[in-house]
Every structure is written in C-alpha cells, then in structure tokens.
Amino acid sequence: MSVQATVVGLSEGPTLQPDAGARARRWAFPRSARLTIGLVIVGFFVLMAVVGPYLVGNPLTFHTAMLHAPTTRFLLGTTQLGQDVFAQLVVGSRGTLEVGFLAAAVATVVSIVVGIGGGYVGGRVDELMSLVSNVFLVIPSLPLVIVVSAYVHSTSLLPLILVIALTSWAASARVLRAQTLSVRNREYVLAARASGEKVWRIVIVEIMPNELAIIASQLLFSVIFAILTAASLAFLGLGNINSVSWGSMLYFAQNDEALSSGAWWWFVPPGLCIALLGAGLALINFGLDEVVNPRLHTATRRRAR
Amino acid sequence: MHYVLRKLGFYLVAAWAALTINFILPRLIPGNPVEVLLARSRGQGAVPPQEARSLELLLGLGHGNLLTRYIEYLNQLVHLNFGLSITYFPTPVTTVIAQCLPWTLVLVGTATVMGASLGVTLGAVAGWKRSSAWVNNLIPCTTFLTAIPYFWLALVLLYLFAEIVHAFPLYGGYDASLQIGWSGHFIGSALYHAVLPAATIVISSVGGWLLGMRNMMVSTLAEDYVMAAEAKGLPTRRIMLGYAARNAVLPSVAGFAISLGFIVSGSIVMEVVFSYPGIGYNLLLAVQNDDYPLMQGIFLIISLAVLGANLLVDLLYGFVDPRTRLSR
After folding, report:
1. Are A45 and A273 a contacting pair, CB within 8 Å?
2. What pTM, to 2 d.p., does this model score?
3. According to CATH, what is the number of the domain B93-325?
4. Helix A85-111 to helix A2-12 angle, to the nearest 10 degrees?
5. Rounded to an integer, what distance in angstroms lies between the CA atom of residue B146 and that of residue B149?
6. Shortest CB distance from B269 goes to which of A236, A259, A289?
7. CB-CB: which of A152, A274, A289 is closest to B149?
8. Which of A261, A286, B2, B280 lies at a CB distance of 3.0 to 4.6 Å from B268, suitable for a disulfide?
9. Of chain A residues 19-48, which have a CB less than 8 A from chain B?
10. ipTM of the assembly?
C-alpha cells in the first residue's frame, strides 16, 4: 500500500519527502536542478506509458513500407516486417514501466520486511535475515534469473516480476537494516515499545515513515534494476517476446539483422529510452540525496564563497 | 585473523546456498527432464548407459528421499561430474566450461579493473574539483552512462565500428582460421576481437564508480581532519590522495559485490551480441537447447567465480581499512 503511494508520489513531485519537513521543501526545489530534470524525464515516460498507447496505431500492424527510414508518417521508420517503430516504442513503454515498477514494488516490500523488520527485532532473527540478504547480494542475479526463466518456460507477467523481485531486494534490505539499527533505540521508538505497541505497528508506523527517503531512493534503484533485467531477458528471447516492450523490440531488431541492414532507427531508440529513463530515475535519487544529506550541500556552499 | 576466518565462513555459506539453489531449481521444470534430455541426446548419437543415472543424480531427480538425492547431487559435484552437454554432445560439461571460462575471465576481469580504476580516479578528481561548475554540470551526464544496458551499447558500438567503419570484427573472440594457442598471431587476433567488448564494459561501468567516488570524496573533504590537514599547510597532492581519496575509496571497495554483480550480468548479455566464445554466450546456447547440464554447470561456475572475486576484494578491504581487522 504505502509503496504504491510512494510510486504515485514520485511522478507528482512535492509529496516526495514528507519527512524532510518544511525547511527542506523550502530550499530543495529551486536548488536541486537534478531533481527537477529527473522528475521531468520520468514524468514524460510515465505519461507516455499511460496515455501514449491510445494515441498511436496498433504497433503490430504490417505496413507496406518495410525497413523504411524515418519519415513524417513513420517518425522512427519501420521494421523488417513494416511495423511502425514509433508505435512500438510508445506501446512498449507501458510494458517496460509495468514490469519495472511492479517488480521494484515487490522487491521493496520484501526489503522492508527483511531490513526494517529484522533490524528492529534483532537477535537471532536479524542475524539470519542479514545472512540471507548478504548471500543474495553476492550471488549474481542475472544468471539466476536466466536459469529460472529457462526452467519455468513461462510467458506470463507474474513469474517474471517475482523472479526479478526475488533477486533484487537484498541491497535495499541491507541499507534499510543499517538505518533501522541506528533508529531502533531512539526515544520515540522506546516510548512506543514501552506503551505496548505491537512489533508490526512499531515497524510500520514509527520506524518506516522515518526511512521513507531511503525507501524511495532504494525503490528508484530497484526500478532501474528491474527494467534493465527485464530488457536483458527479453533481449535473450526469454520471457514474453510477444508482448511489446523495449527489450523485445531489441530482440527482434537483433534477430532480424537490423544492424547489417543499417536500420539504426530500429535498435537505437529503445535502448536510448531505457538509458534516459534510468538516468531520470537516478537524477531524482541524487536530487533526493542532496535534500536528505546536508553534507553534500555544506561542501558545495563552502567552496562557493 | 578473525576477520579472515569470518569472511571465509560467510563465503562458504554463500557457496553452499548457490549449490542448493542449483539443486532446487530443476524441480521447476514441467514433465520429466531426464526423459526429454535423453530423447534429444539419442538423436545426436549413442548415449552411454550410465548417463541417465548420472543426469538424474545431477538434476536431483533420482529416486529415494530428498536428502539422499541431495547428498548424491553433492557427491557428483565433488567429483566434478556435471554430465554431458547436449549442445556439444557428447562433450562433458566440464570440458565446455574449461574452454569458454578463460575468455570471460580475462575479458571481464581486465575490463572491470580498467573501468574501476578509471572511474575511481575520475571520481576523485571530480570530487576534488567540486567547485568547478564545468565538472558539476558534467556529473549528471554520467548517470546516463550508468543506466545504459550493456547489450544495447554493444549493439551501438558494433554498428558504428564494425558495420559503418570497418575498424573491428563483427563477431567472435578470435580469427577462426588461426590455431588456438600461445602464438603471437592468435593473441593479437584475440586482443583485436576483445576491444569492442572491453570498451562496452568499461564505458558502462565507469559512471557508477565515478559517481560513488565523487560523492564520497565530497563528503570526506568536508571532514574536520581534511580541514586540519589544510590548516597544517600540507601539500595539496598529499591532502587529496592521502587524506581524502584514501578514505573516500572505502565505500567503493565495500560495494564491490554489487558493482561486480551488475558487470557480470551485463557481460553475459553483451557476449551474446558479439558472439564472444565465453560463458555468457554458452549460457544462452544452453538455454536455447534446453541443455540443463550445461546450464547448471555455468550457473555454478559463474556463482563461484563471483564469490571468489568478492572474497578477494573483502580480504583486500581488510588491508585497506585497518579498522575492519579489529574484531568486535
């Protein structure tokens, strides 16, 4: 629930750091150009994914112009089979963002449970959870995802999301655990414990809101990771090739010899969009960091004198 | 010493986890994979009689309870018996891996070290020159680099430098007309073929190192001990390297596991673009051919290699940061 709320908040902006307080909000926005640029980029792609598919034609329709360079009719040219690359790009943005945000949401929920829950409860439970997340951190994820997809042979969305989430929660969990360890003995948490609040309530109501900025930042990283992983899988021909996404566009471009026929308009845009979206998400993250981590500020200000 | 033992213990647990995941995964296959595999192998030539049994053990699908199957599976691994590859039938999986592993190790290893040293150096400089508007405006652009999919950059480089400008070969790891060996021709050809793949890894990984190092450098420079060093009138060079960079680099080293995971994942897909004869390309071949023994072998070897690299860096970290050696 709360993660969903964060996702929505990200595309809108001002609800981003409810914990940073009014002081932060007053100077953060005019100052952080990165945050603004990042929000504009991500907002653009979210808009494209939400509204875009209704505005362009069917991306799978075959036109008579095959492997045609960009024209006014086909803004980004056509594929080997005469499909409109621009329409594919727009429709593909939806599939790509869907997998990215959903997998990241699941991964974030897991990392909250393991990181904050484990960190707060402490003791054996924490040691075990921390060990498990460290193990997941060092086992390389993409080979695991590839092998699982090869075994499962599934083409539906849910297994894909779960597999990506399963391999990407560990880093966030570690960060959240470290933060929780420093928060768990603050007065307000002790007070909540003394007044007999339940563990889940302390974790969700007392601790989590204070780590929202970190959670948001980890969520953004997870989105980048999930989008890259899903695109890699689609590019390898695993997962669902028939649904249009930026990854599957690249798969078909590679397999239908877009390179040797010089059809740059086919394989350049999807990758560029992935990189741009990733850069946008990362910029939001750095903007957030500037707001939350005042040290980065003092340093620049001292020099600016 | 305690630090080393603790790290060794952790990586043993991690290796055990990788082995166990590898044991559990084949259970996800619908139907009876051993039958499917044998049927396919028979089409390619005679199957040795003990092969079915060996496959069952390896995939953990034999008879008996789970525990005995698990022990038999471990026993197979201890004897390095990964079965026969279906893609390269009847070559044993170990032989296939032994042939393709060096390609990936050398390529990814060298490129990772190059990308990391380049990124950390540039990051240190960018952090030092934090007042320069020019540098500060350039920094956000590197976020773009970090988000580029490796395989896409590989496609673009291939298009630019092999299709349009015929400067580099289109695919492969060496000139196929040459004999594999330690001859000058072969090594030259291998290097020539490695330029674009290595460039892909360096370009896509450098941004992450740079950003991490730059941010740490900026926060380290705000520390009091740096100001004290400045006040003492120490040479700039010494403050930058000995005081700031030395401390700022620690999180980059500590975060090596995550970075390496990214690089390995990216390289696997990148190899496919270049048809580079390494582990990643063969993993895809194995997946496409439902070659479960080869898939298992490659997953294990990648996991163990990454674990080994992380162990190495962790031990190195103990040297770089003496505080870790004080056991708590």
Report:
1. yes
2. 0.82
3. 1.10.3720.10
4. 130
5. 8
6. A236
7. A274
8. B280
9. 34, 37
10. 0.81
